[in-house]
Amino acid sequence: MTGEGDGHTSVAGRSSMNEYTFGPLGPDDANEATEIFNHYVRHTFAAYPEEPVPPAFFNQLMAHAAGYPAAAVRDADGALAGFGLLRPHRPMAVFAGTAELTCFIRPDRTGKGVGARILGILEEEGAKSGIVTILAGISSHNEGSIRFHARHGFQECGRFVGVGMKFGTLFDEVWMQKIL
User: Fold this and answer.
1) Which of 55, 178, 61 is CA-nearest to residue 123?
2) Which stretches does DSSP call E strand in 46-97?
3) What angle (nearest 5°) sits at the alpha carbon of residue 1, between those of residues 14 and 175?
4) In terms of pTM, does the model score above 0.85?
5) Is 99 exposed, middle or buried (0-12, 13-18, 19+ CB in 10 A)?
6) Across-strand partners of 39?
7) What local confidence, expressed as pLDDT, does residue 10 receive?
8) Kind and range of the H or E element at 105?
């Protein structure tokens, strides 16, 4: 099933967790999703660009992830509190069962179970669409994300040492994997 013509697998229905509503992520979310992403660009190692990106970046990401699950979480007032999506690991049929994870939560909403719920939705919808392995590429300076993934069944499966530099600091790219 695809969500409202956006080419993405929709989440199965909507569910609530306290004040949050979970549903499909789509093109109308570009501005809010870009704001969330750009917070991490400016202040952390979680997003790799060194400069804030325009909403067109989000649209390119969504186009690259067409046909894969994508989920949005909204506050009670309808504001985007976070988003996640799966995208192809490699554009070859032999890797069709492997997807890469992207997930960003508004900073004032982290630590409330929102990321775990988005991950659960993406895992469930991914498995339904034939995904058997999810990969996450994480900066070694993003220790919170590494802990989050480990708590949710991901294991480190590789590390590229000193391959990135942001804020004048070298970092490793840590690859984590979860087999569904």
Assistant:
1) 178
2) 70-74, 80-88
3) 80
4) yes
5) buried
6) none
7) 37
8) strand 98-105
DSSP summary character for residue 25:
-
Residue 4, token pair as written in the block: 């409202």
**Residues forming a β-bridge with 135:** 100, 177
State in Å, rounded, how far the first CA of the chain is from the last one: 20
Both tokens assigned to 53: 């990106």
Phi/psi at 52 (5° precision)? -55, 150
How many other C-beta atoms lie within 10 A of the C-beta of residue 84?
A: 24
pLDDT of residue 19: 85
Lookup: tokens for 38: 């750009």
- 3-class DSSP state of 149: helix
**Residue type at 177 in one-letter notation:** Q
Which residue, among 134, 144, 135, 128, has the nearest Cα to 175 in the 3D structure?
Answer: 135
What residues in the chain have per-residue pLDDT under 70? 1-18
pLDDT of residue 108: 94
Of 87, 150, 88, 152, nearest to 117 by C-alpha is 152
Residue type, 83: F
Instruction: Report yes or no: 65 and 59 within 8 Å, Cβ to Cβ.
Output: no
